[in-house]
Amino acid sequence: MKCETFMKRFLENDEAGSLSPAIRIHLFRCARCAGEVRAFRLAMADLRPYEPFVLDGIESARIVDSVMRQPEYRKSISLFNWVGAGVLMFVGIFLAPFSDQFMSLRDHFGGDLEVPFSLVMGVMVTIYAAIFIGTHMDELSRWLEHHKLGGPFRP
Hints:
single chain, mainly alpha, 2 domains, 8 helices, flat
């Protein structure tokens, strides 16, 4: 058994008395690991007086309340980045057929490359739009409420 495997298995054990035979053999044969285990057990023995650290119900409820009152964390991507990525995608859709690589692919595969390219780019735009709308649903709802017309459409 390798020393890394030994330390991983040793630290996974809750009880020192329930060590498997393979762990005990490695502990007996490897002086380095035996020294680390002795240091670990000495550190644990120093921590024993502080072991029964128990919070009373009032204190634990206060901690849970303070954690629950924290504002929800949400990593957001700025609207500038979303718009920039969308503009780059649309520019790429329109300019890709004029690139040298696309023309060489067209020469190699024939003129039927525009249809699969259009389908793939359409799927990409659809996925992009769905993710954008899904992540900005609150802003979209507020915008629609703000720009809502006051009655039925009149031409």
